């Protein structure tokens, strides 16, 4: 069975974006060797248009073949004409406001995200990447099998959290932790068995 992985960047205090959705404040953490290292390890998580710059334009998908996004995650690219950001992946966008007119390679659905994920998990293929955002992650928390958290050495003090959901503690176990370029920390957690 395929697994759902929430692969996301966050501040030390657990915010994935500013209150208005902006994430430019992460830029100082994305310099030097960090992005090339990330591109080598997770090439499919780079937008299609940026893959050539890191020498992974033709790299095969090794970890994920499907990406899930909420309307808030998909929207910034759409606003600048990037309606097919991950052409090398199957793209599913959860939205009740978007309809026809977007790139046909991007699946827009208003269906219950948990139902969609359960169906996707039954299909053959590589893993499913939950790109964001907080509302979608909150809805899918019971379905998330793995967390890969790119923690940047920044404290935001407020903003959009990793998850926006009702209080419902879920146990995960640490499977990997390493400091990479710029003091960024990548931690990997697997869903604890007894849930």
TrEMBL record:
Residues 2-184 form the Bacterial bifunctional deaminase-reductase C-terminal domain. GO terms for biological process: riboflavin biosynthetic process. SUPFAM superfamilies: Dihydrofolate reductase-like. One of its GO terms (molecular function) is 5-amino-6-(5-phosphoribosylamino)uracil reductase activity. It comes from the Bacteria. This is Dihydrofolate reductase.
């Amino acid at each position: 069975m395929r697994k759902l992985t929430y692969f996301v960047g966050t501040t030390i205090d657990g915010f994935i974006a500013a209150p208005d959705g902006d994430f430019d404040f992460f830029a100082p953490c994305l310099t030097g060797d960090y992005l090339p290292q990330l591109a080598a390890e997770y090439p499919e998580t780079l937008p299609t248009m940026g893959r050539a710059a890191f020498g992974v334009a033709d790299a095969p998908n090794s970890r994920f073949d499907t990406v899930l996004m909420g309307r808030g995650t998909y929207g910034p690219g759409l606003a600048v004409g990037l309606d097919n950001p991950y052409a090398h992946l199957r793209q599913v966008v959860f939205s009740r406001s978007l309809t026809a007119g977007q790139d046909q390679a991007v699946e827009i659905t208003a269906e219950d995200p948990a139902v969609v994920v359960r169906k996707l998990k039954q299909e053959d293929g590589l893993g499913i990447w939950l790109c964001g955002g907080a509302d979608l992650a909150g809805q899918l928390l019971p379905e998330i099998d793995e967390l890969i958290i790119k923690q940047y050495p920044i404290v935001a003090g407020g903003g959009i959290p990793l998850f926006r959901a009702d209080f419902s503690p879920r146990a995960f176990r640490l499977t990997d932790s390493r400091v990479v370029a710029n003091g960024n920390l990548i931690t990997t957690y697997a869903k604890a068995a007894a849930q």
